[in-house]
Specification:
- By secondary structure, the chain is of the alpha+beta class.
- It has a domain at 116-274: Beta Barrel (Thrombin, subunit H), CATH 2.40.10.
- The protein has helices at 2-31, 35-111, 198-201, and strands at residues 116-127, 132-136, 149-151, 157-164, 169-173, 180-185, 191-195, 206-209, 222-225, 237-246, 253-259, 268-274.
Length: 279
């Protein structure tokens, strides 16, 4: 036995080493993969990483596009909703203003039962170097006639009908240069003539002239229509005295009147088609 080991020990050791290496290799490959598969995977691995990166980028872009599209659609829906709310608000404001005008008109009708009113909507404001006028949507079909007096909802004088058609009329406002009507200072009862003035029309003012000598007017005095002559109803508010001045000769005074009606903001007026004449 000793001789066998002595003579063959080297071969036995070599065989054991080979067996150990073989078992180790088999163990390694059995826990990982075959050499060919491993080699293929080693080559494909960078491409697989690139594909994964590209797929991830494309997926991110797709998600971004989907989210952006959703946001745009949501913003469009919100803008549409806001526009609807704004339209409803404007309509509510218009309805509120119309209701206020109707309430004022009803109050005025109750106060002045001697007036026959026709409500009208202003369709145009026109101001030139020579005239200041309004166009209304009522005409002869509604009983409107030349020289009819026009007031706002609270009874402030606006102007006089100067042209009339079937379903329209033109009103010259108080500040027009053709204006000329009898006026009375409410506090002092002094009579005068309210007239349009070219130099004052741009400022929306008119003159109160032909005042009695020694009249004691004050700034802020209320001026109304006198009703004398029967052309205009009495007691309509023309405006208030803004300034009291002397004419060029220094012999007579006149006043600058600021109309009570706000021509720029008017949207609806009342046409007085008939009234009781005060004598």
């Amino acid at each position: 036995m000793k001789n066998f080991l002595k003579n063959n020990g080297l071969w036995i050791l070599f065989a054991a080493a080979v067996i150990s290496v073989t078992l180790a290799a088999m163990s390694f490959f059995s826990t990982t993969s075959a050499p060919l598969v491993n080699a293929v995977n080693a080559v494909v691995s960078p491409f697989r990483s690139a594909y994964t990166a590209v797929a991830s980028w494309f997926n991110d872009k797709q998600n971004y596009y989907r989210d952006t599209t959703a946001l745009l659609e949501e913003n469009a829906a919100l803008r549409k909703h806001v526009a609807q709310l704004e339209a409803e608000l404007r309509q509510a404001e218009d309805d509120s203003k119309e209701n206020e005008i109707l309430r004022d008109a009803l109050d005025l009708q109750q106060q002045r039962r001697d007036f026959d009113f026709e409500t009208a909507i202003i369709t145009e404001h026109a101001v030139t170097n020579w005239t200041s006028s309004l166009t209304l949507n009522k005409g002869t079909n509604h009983g409107v006639a030349l020289n009819d007096t026009v007031v706002d909802g609270t009874g402030n004088l606006v102007g006089v009908v100067r042209d009339v058609g079937v379903n329209w009329c033109t009103v010259l406002t108080l500040v027009d240069t053709d204006t000329s009507l009898g006026a009375q200072v409410f506090r002092t009862k002094d009579l005068g003539l309210a007239v349009g003035d070219f130099s004052l029309m741009e400022r929306q003012r008119l003159r109160l002239e032909l005042l009695p000598a020694g009249c004691q007017l004050l700034g802020g005095d209320l001026v109304q229509t006198s009703g004398l002559g029967g052309y205009y109803p009495s007691g309509l508010v023309i405006g208030r005295i803004e300034e009291i001045l002397m004419d060029d000769s220094g012999a007579a005074s006149y006043a600058i009147l600021a109309p009570a009606a706000d021509f720029d903001s008017l949207t609806e007026v009342l046409i007085i088609k008939d009234f009781d004449i005060v004598t």
